[in-house]
Amino acid sequence: MTDKKGYRAGLQSRAILIGREKVSRKAHVLDFEIERAEAMSRPLPGQFYHVDCGGGREHLLRRPLSVHGITGSEKGAPVIRFMVEAVGWGTEKLCSLEPGTGVGLLGPLGHWFTPVERGRALLVSGGIGIAPLFFLASEMDRKGMGYDLFAGFREGEEYYPALSDLKGGIQVYTDDGTLGSKGLVSEGAVLRIKGDSYYTVFACGPEAMMAVVAVACERSGVACQVSLTSRMACGLGLCRGCVREGKGGRNLCVCAEGPVFDSRDVKWKE
Amino acid sequence: MERVGMDLSVDLAGIKLKNPILLASGTAGYGVELSSVIELSRVGGVILKSVTGKPRKGNPSPRIWETASGMLNSVGLENMGIDALIGEVLPELSGLGVPIIASIAADTVDEYARLAAVLNGATGVSAVEVNVSCPNVEKGGIHFGIDAEATRAVASAARSSTELPLFVKLSAVVADISEVALAAQAGGASGLSLINTVPGLAVDPVSRRPRLGGVTGGLSGPAIKPIALKAVWDCYRTTGLPIIGGGGIYDVDDVLEFLIAGAAAVSVGTVTFTDPAGALDIIETLPGALSALGVESPGELTGSLRV
């Protein structure tokens, strides 16, 4: 029922970094080989792992990272892939980890994207929000499901080259026009949500971007699932630290009830 | 090497704990959530998240900010309310085989009395922690705990409403904590729980806004450990009451310090966020750590500070 350390089955406790690659100006892709693979629950797109960045008692909190993909190692062990942008102490530490390093890693946690079995889906990402949506797109490719992916970046140097491996229709936006269409990905997405018959929209990115997409979906009667981000402590629903206000005064616990929510449940911040 | 099978049990104001490691209020939810992640029955006990008379939504987000060797939180006593605790949580916890300490918080003395009375008949509750020291609410909370007379009044009201052991949880951010501790004792506290988080602030220099939605928060983690240890030592000397000591416990060595300073049991909190099985690691390593100091039980260390 539990391992030596006292964790119940299905949750990982340790992984080894077996590869790290800088994939754009700011983002790294990290591959972790899972120990105790036999006890692993396969992560679903939208789920996250709570990652110990090795801060000891100086930096106490884990960092929640959405799963970016699953592969396999040469040994045949499952490998969990994350995409990380260095924005603070923990993510900078992760982006400089040497392969071979062991890392505490708890997951998979949280509520996932629920793909639709019929119709065409639209995926809308802003910046590092591509991390979980790329995983969703890969899984949809694997299942032969149709989708378009609109990916927004601040500039061309932030573009993630692996997007060209996906089978869906890819449309890139940059704020400065150095790659793809110039402008906000949310604006491009809104035009398509109004005009096309998407069955579901999946969005992950900055709050303002998701808010615009969510409002457009609501007006057009299209279902929309968003992956929210929040400062977390426990990642397990214990501390209520990641909670934000939802519609109708309801509290949304991002780690345990999310990070993926029906956009109609979210109260967007100004 | 470790002595296999050392008896780690302690008597805490009449409650028999199989080991002195408790999970601190607010860091273990209502126990149920954590039991799906770790083997909760191995801990000495769980102090549940504080409940109030009615459910509370808590403070605006963000509620968490990491600081040097610590973290600030501004959860603001978000909780399900005592009715849901009694009706939904306690029945589920009863099968876990671990002592449960319920924690209560209120705006008025009468409300503390009412909550203590409701818990008196509740199944599966071994003791009550009276939280008079939450820094994240406008009314009640720390406003009781910084005042000796108000603390006495709350302790006394709770005492007359329940037969369960009562632990009054104090704030160290007072001029003289032993004065407040003596007042809690005079009101009928069976023991003390020390310490609550320390009020703090973090600022984003770019926006010049506070990092927390509630503006200020409560600091926890290793950063507050020396403050907590002094509070335990002061209160142990002045009251002699059984003390649940905690504040920044990260590993077994920290536990030894709290016991030596006067704690009968300890509460581990923020380390559960670093590692949900952190308390289990501590329990695993405690026998070896006690043996290394030449003692045969946690109780032998309690209050053994040599000065």
Keywords for this entry:
A: 270 residues; alpha/beta; Elongation Factor Tu (Ef-tu), domain 3; Rossmann fold; 7-stranded mixed beta sheet; 6-stranded antiparallel β-barrel; 15 strands; globular; B: 307 residues; TIM Barrel; 8-stranded parallel beta barrel; 4-stranded antiparallel beta sheet; 16 strands
Structure description:
The complex is a heterodimer of chains A (about 270) and B (about 300). Chain A is built from 4 helices and 15 strands. Chain A is α/β, with parallel strands linked by helices. Chain A folds into 2 domains: about 15-110, Translation factors (Elongation Factor Tu (Ef-tu), domain 3, Beta Barrel); about 120-225, Nucleotide-binding domain of ferredoxin-NADP reductase (FNR) module (Rossmann fold, 3-Layer(aba) Sandwich), CATH 3.40.50. In chain A, the strands form 3 sheets. Chain A has a 7-stranded mixed sheet with strand order 10-9-8-7-11-12-15, sandwiched between helices. The N and C termini of chain A lie far apart (about 45 Å). Chain B has one domain (about 10-60, about 75-200, about 220-300): Alpha-Beta Barrel (TIM Barrel), CATH 3.20.20.70. In chain B, strands 3-4-7-8-9-10-15-16 form an 8-stranded parallel beta barrel, surrounded by 6 helices. A 4-stranded antiparallel sheet of chain B has the order 5-6-14-11, with no helix packed on it. The chains are: A alpha/beta (about 270), B alpha/beta (about 300).
